[in-house]
């Protein structure tokens, strides 16, 4: 069989092909069979782990293994669609606005309803109801506009008018071509990166930017002897700021917040550069990082054109924030949890300051109790922002 390459090869005898096993491809196939992204990704990851010691597997065997896993996880209906011949699974074909035809996917349809701020099982239930009604009415081919109109109707009946209006406005917004710029601030360890990655997937935003990465690039370009505060942590930059003396000749030590503000003003140059580029190119963007202060968020929010949504993410319980800091070293190599825990009081103090600033500048505070809860809060905030600019008339979203 040859020397082990470390990559599982999928052999398809009918196609006479040999291709590497790709978790992303399997995830996509499971989505097309009606599974949500997170569930599909978990199943694909589990299959990859199960087969990590294998060198080759026949495609039919792989399909059986996936189906068994789906059934074990309680997704028997998805397993049936996944294992059915492709021509049988693509029962309802949908023609998009660009004329492209694709099979109806409950997973993708559920994702389009994320803006409603509903629990994932509720959006999947609505998607399943839409599919059921079309099958009941013997629909074999339809348009994306008709699917959208039916989805809005089911949302109105199952959930309420508000959810339907949020969905319709989102469709109108996506058709407008206007960009969405989310600015996610918050102290170290509050969960900004995780939330931003989840939002990027669920909202279909391909461009994200971490201010930590911008700071790293700036550190390479500017030596510490010139801008020493740039080469410190956000909660430790005050240690390299100059001291001064008051009228009584007493030495005044810089406050931790002074260091944060100094470093944030330095990184703000790069943040604004990324922001201006996104506005110029008319593309959606998620900016996340501790350096996105409420004052900077409010200033950038005045930009005309994009839909601007400033957010401050916060872990309002000390136990929650401490737990997340402990997990940083486990989930992200190179991030030592001890360093953050040793400075927990400063990190908590910085969050307290950011919360007061968010209240001062009218920036929406999102409490991080869980990823799903945080996402729902952000979706509601985005939807509220859309309400002032876009119509909730079904004719504007789906045509007459």
Fold topology:
Blueprint: E1 9-12, E2 17-20, H1 23-32, H2 37-50, E3 56-58, H3 59-72, H4 76-83, H5 86-89, E4 93-95, E5 101-103, H6 106-112, H7 120-136, E6 141-143, H8 144-158, H9 161-176, E7 180-185, H10 192-203, E8 208-210, H11 211-221, E9 244-245, E10 251-252, H12 256-281, E11 285-288, H13 294-300, E12 307-314, H14 318-331, H15 337-342, H16 344-361, E13 364-367, H17 371-387, H18 394-398
Parallel strand pairs: 1-3, 4-6, 7-11, 7-12, 8-11, 12-13
Antiparallel strand pairs: 1-2, 4-5, 9-10
Description:
With 400 residues, the protein is of the alpha/beta class. It folds into three domains: 9-89; 93-176; 180-387, P-loop containing nucleotide triphosphate hydrolases (Rossmann fold, 3-Layer(aba) Sandwich). It has 18 helices and 13 strands. The protein has helices at 23-32, 37-50, 59-72, 76-83, 86-89, 106-112, 120-136, 144-158, 161-176, 192-203, 211-221, 256-281, 294-300, 318-331, 337-342, 344-361, 371-387, 394-398, and strands spanning 9-12, 17-20, 56-58, 93-95, 101-103, 141-143, 180-185, 208-210, 244-245, 251-252, 285-288, 307-314, 364-367. The strands form four sheets. The protein has a five-stranded parallel β-sheet with strand order 8-11-7-12-13, sandwiched between helices. It is globular and about 85 Å long.
